[in-house]
Amino acid sequence: MNRPDRAASLHKARARATATPVDPSWPLRLAEDLRGIRADWKTSAEVCADAAWAARSAGRSVLGLLSSEDVLATDRDPITARTLVHLYLSALRFDFRCPTLQRLVEHLAETTRQPLDCYTRALYAFALLGQSRPEGLTVMDEVLTEAEEHPKTLHVLLHGLWFGQDLDEGAERLLALSSRLALATGTGTGTGTGTGTGPIVLFRVAGALRRMDRYDEGLGAIDREIDCLPPGDTSVHADLVRERSLICAARGLHQHRSPTRTSSGVPS
After folding, report:
1. Are 79 and 44 in contact (CB under 8 A)?
2. Residue 97 has what pLDDT?
3. Cα(229)–Cα(132) distance, integer angstroms
4. pLDDT at 195
5. SS3 content of the chain, % helix, strand, coil (to 5)
6. What is the DSSP letter of 265?
7. pLDDT of residue 63
8. What distances in angstroms separate CA 7 from CA 1, 4, 87, 209, 227, one per listed residue?
9. Residues 235, 189 contacting (CB under 8 angstroms)
10. What residues are paired with 267 via a beta bridge?
11. What gap in Å lies between CA 215 and CA 66, rounded to an integer?
12. Nearest CA among 186, 206, 205, 187 for reference residue 196
């Protein structure tokens, strides 16, 4: 398939994936589209993550269309199998079903005929990080060596660091990851102004700053992003406002617990 034809087919696949998925067989139709263009794991991840989110937002989660048996079936061609894996695991991620996601990937690793692709392993890292399991950091570092600047993969790892509240230096690692080029430029955030760090990244960064007691920096990040959101954009506005309230509450509690000092520096 030449490049213009492949681009047109990919556009068709994306349109089918992110349209309101009223046809319950659309996951298999999407797999056909991706097989037709011989999609690699990066293209599959980009299309399937958006498709799983669009289906969830429309109230028709992939989890209601596919089963774990569909994902674990060994009689499918590699691209179809990978498409269903990416769709199902992405849906588990968006629902924060970390233990189920972990078990499913471990089962896949035992039964699949080929090594797991980078995005699937990133979703496995998310499942471990989301449970604050330290081995998730090891898997994350392994994925980062292969993912390079693939935005969807980096977002999965950032999501895991944000959700895992008890990871060793989790907040510091989140800030370091957020500075990667694909995230710092706002690429692949799925929403936002299109320039600079996107709202999803800043939302997670603000949460990390709160955990590090850097409240004023967190508030500054939140306020700048709220001010830059497009008019009427409700995609992340509520999350940003909620995080702002959490930062204010945490700062007030911190100030209340800190002893008042006199001009001599002695607690009063």
Report:
1. yes
2. 98
3. 31
4. 32
5. 70, 0, 30
6. S
7. 95
8. 10, 5, 21, 41, 36
9. no
10. 261
11. 43
12. 186
Residue with tokens 């998925």, as numbered in its chain: 21
Distance from the Cα of residue 260 to its chain's centroid: 42
The residue type found at 259 is P
Q: How many CB atoms lie within 10 A of CB 240?
A: 20
Contact 71, 84 (CB under 8 A): yes
Tokens 């570092």 belong to 141
Which pair of tokens denotes residue 160?
């895991």
> What are the structure tokens assigned to 132, written together?
């604050």
pLDDT along the chain (268 residues), means of 10: 69 73 85 93 95 90 94 93 97 98 96 91 98 97 94 96 95 95 62 52 94 94 89 84 94 81 50
85, 71 Cβ separation under 8 angstroms: yes
DSSP state of 63: G
Between the two ends of the chain, the Cα-to-Cα distance in Å is: 77
At 256, the amino acid letter reads H
Residue corresponding to tokens 């967190």 = 218
What's phi and psi for 267, nearest 5 deg? -55, 135
The one-letter amino acid code at 166 reads D
Q: Which amino acid makes up residue 263?
A: S
Q: Take residue 131 and report the two structure tokens written for it.
A: 């449970």
Is residue 173 within 8 A of residue 159, CB to CB? The reply is: no
CB-based burial, 145-178: b 16+ in 10 Å, e otherwise: eebeebbbbbbbbbbbbbbbeebeebbebbbebb
For residues 231 and 248, what is the distance between their CA atoms, to the nearest angstrom? 25
The one-letter code for the residue type at 20 is T
